[in-house]
Amino acid sequence: MTILLDVQPGYGAIGAGLAAIGAGIGIGQIGKGAVEGIARQPEATNDIRANMILAAALVEGVALLAAVAGLLVSLK
Amino acid sequence: MVSKCLKSLLVAVFSLGMVFFCNALFAQEDGKKLDPAKIIMEHVSDGHEFHFFTLNDKRVSIPLPVILYSPGKGFSVFMSSAFEEGTEVHDGYRLLEEKYMSDNKLEEIKTPKGQPVYQTGKIYVADASGMPDASVKVYDFSLTRNVVQLIISLILLVWLMTNVAKKYSKGHGVKTAPSGFQNAVEPVITFVRDEVGKPNLGHKYEKYMPYLLTVFFFILINNLVGLIPGTANVTGNIAFTACLGIISFVIILFSSNKHYWGHIINPPVPFAIKFIMVPIEILGIFTKPFALIIRLFANMISGHIIVLSFIILIFIFGAMNAGLGWGTSPLFVFFSVFIYLLEILVAFIQAFIFANLTAVFIGQAFEGSHDDLSEHNDAIVI
Asked: How far is CA A56 from CA A37, A59, B224, in A?
């Protein structure tokens, strides 16, 4: 049984990979800030957690915009 | 002790069930090529049937009604099983599928601009010899699997919520503690009211709570139902998220006031920067709902694609060496179960984010001027 894998430059995948790096860095910094805030003031954990998730979703939205663009390129 | 055994048993059954439900991939055994991209796209796109698995070339699926309108022929309604997976012409229509396209070299026919004329999965009017004719317009109003699943989750949502509302109207849980399913629903509704509605919308939150609650619960239910193996991928469909985004956009526009438009046409910035700011602000009116649309769509569809890719990796390894396929399968099943649980979390988060950002944008739209906010009460009242 052979595998049908078209070996092509894969520019779309490179773009999506770069977007993943961006998302990783962004959400990592958000997490760092959130954890430091919780360490300084544990009573504010719930507020910090809600804001962290909101900010992470915004950053991820942008990164997924780039991932969708990469997907469109590789499927055309 | 018993509950611990039960939990391990449930995890084991769940993992095995996941592998067996992806039997659609078993169809590619014995001589047929394994095309991962095609299998994944088949699973996450819309279709005219609920396809569960294919055992020994027998397709186990639930066919759905196909409703077509064509200017010359009027309405046609029949079950999609009449198409026999694209091999038969029924009632003058043909469902175009891959094998027929490659046999008749239809992918090479292009418009003057270079776009392919025929696309797989679409229904065309068939002429006398059975070839699809792309010049006759066919309007496809079928009950595809996304539509049927939308209707099912709609019925589920309305039934659950009206039952809870009836209990409240009878007096249970108003002055007493909530009982039964109210216990599950009340914290979520108060969460949406206190974390999403009130902080962003201030004292006008009650007007928008119905929409925010509807959008939150509808996205949540569709996300969760879409995670069950065998169901359709509703929220990972750009048409669905686009409709929700457009409705949010209309609500944001209708709740805007003069101050909002003043800031867009004439932002309070130094004169030279206004030339850059005004186009950006005008674009910003459209990019905010657009980001909502893309965020939900991309999150949900990428989750599905990741789970499917892990399962297909087992078959890719198996194609190279049968022993390798069996050996790596526990690892990949473990990965896909892990991503699956992450997807349940993402389902909740994305529903919350959509509702929250809609509330934020609505709040920004009717904000009002910053100097005459008289609602801030002093901390000390003497």
From this structure: 15, 5, 21
Instruction: Specify the pTM.
Output: 0.82
Domain holding B254, by residue range, is 145-365
Do B161 and B107 lie in one domain? The reply is no
Q: Is B266 helix (H, G, I), strand (E, B) or coil?
A: coil
Instruction: Please say which residue of B126, B142, B158 terminates a domain.
Output: B142
Distance from CA of A23 to the nearest CA of B (A): 13
Tell me if B320 and A3 make a contact (CB, 8 A cut-off): yes
Chain B residues with CB inside 8 Å of A5's CB?
A: 36
Number of A to B CB contacts under 8 A, please give it: 59
**Cβ separation A64–B29 shorter than 8 A:** no
pLDDT in tens, chain B (382 residues): 677 888 888 877 777 766 655 554 554 444 467 788 888 888 888 888 888 877 777 778 888 888 888 887 788 888 888 777 777 777 778 787 777 777 777 777 777 777 777 777 788 887 777 777 777 888 888 888 999 999 999 999 999 999 999 988 888 888 888 888 888 899 999 999 998 999 888 888 899 999 999 999 999 999 999 998 888 889 989 999 999 999 999 999 998 888 888 888 888 889 889 899 999 999 989 999 999 999 999 999 988 988 888 888 888 888 888 788 888 888 888 888 988 898 998 999 999 999 999 999 999 888 876 665 555 555 665 5
B314 located within any domain: yes
Helices first, then strands: H and E counts in chain B: 11, 9
Task: Report how far residue B287's alpha carbon sits from residue A23's, in angstroms, rounded to the nearest whole number.
Answer: 19
CATH code of A36's domain: 1.20.20.10
* ipTM at complex level: 0.74
Same domain, B294 and B358: yes
